[in-house]
Amino acid sequence: MRIEESFKCDRPIGAAVTPFSTDNSPPGNDSSGDTVSLDDLLAPPLNFSMVDYGVYRSGFPDYANFPFLRTLGLRSIIYLCPEPYPVANAEFLKANGIRLFQFGIEGSKEPFVNIPEDSIREALEVVLDEKNRPLLIHCKRGKHRTGCLVGCLRKLQKWCLTSIFDEYQRYAADKARVSDQRFIELFDVSSLKELSTPVAISKCQ
Amino acid sequence: MRIEESFKCDRPIGAAVTPFSTDNSPPGNDSSGDTVSLDDLLAPPLNFSMVDYGVYRSGFPDYANFPFLRTLGLRSIIYLCPEPYPVANAEFLKANGIRLFQFGIEGSKEPFVNIPEDSIREALEVVLDEKNRPLLIHCKRGKHRTGCLVGCLRKLQKWCLTSIFDEYQRYAADKARVSDQRFIELFDVSSLKELSTPVAISKCQ
Question: Where is composition skewed (Polar residues) in this entry (chains A, B) (predicted)?
């Protein structure tokens, strides 16, 4: 693992691989008149966003997203589905020294829903471990399983439920589930508090 | 301005003021059994999210959001509306050494839309200036004016338009405007490239 190189705790998103001040690419299809080629453009995974310093979330990344993911200098990926990781994605992780943490949570549908609290708790422990950051949390669409994990992280960060659900719903959109939000509301974070020190500050002070 | 104190370039969101490992608050209304009181809970502004390291976005913050905003150690706020800043918000900024950058962009509606490119460009220059971070970008609801500014930032970061619009639409939801997305598509970032160096990395290396 390229620990030192990968841990850019505050690398601007998308800026690392293609510094703007050194763009020598030929004119492309950009109607703004800016000189940029399609090859230079970066495509974040579906539903991608920053969650916290060194913590990102998204839907399932595919080949088109790999150049963007390289700019994040990821150290780990938390994969929340039971299906085996695709070969192309596994090769990308190997080539970039990224560790995979898989928690096989079934993509259940309401009204039959069973979110395994133990898996979310173990995944949250991975998120809270400084050694694993920068990391990307993803499931299939970045809505339900990822939303539950991020919601529990927000609860640990003492966000009020109104704000936690507002964030959950922004990513789940018309697929938002009351059962997921109820899971977050009932999730007990007290046993995790000793793990949740302000992780990355030590990297900058 | 409390420069040194305010510039925590990777302070975990919501964790700075209330470290989880020192929670001595009495039991509250948390159904999870976790010991937390309503007074301890933090309420981010509407539509709040991290955009990049030291860059946040949201709707209009009010008094209830001030405790959360304190945890961000903001150095600046970029306010994109023409209306005078409310007294309570102005006092919060003064008390916390936060500088206000106001760009009076009218909240125009389609089909009559006129987004001032110069204002967005000047606001983007403020975002790109390391001295102003950490900063919060906000308008009224964090959808259109804020969405245009963030969209132009993403263009500068070489995100493809598909991803830029996907992000814009996540915050604008059913209020998404084709005119805003067209503005982002046509916005010429070439003159800003020399300003967009990977700002915060120097803080961590």
Answer: 19-35
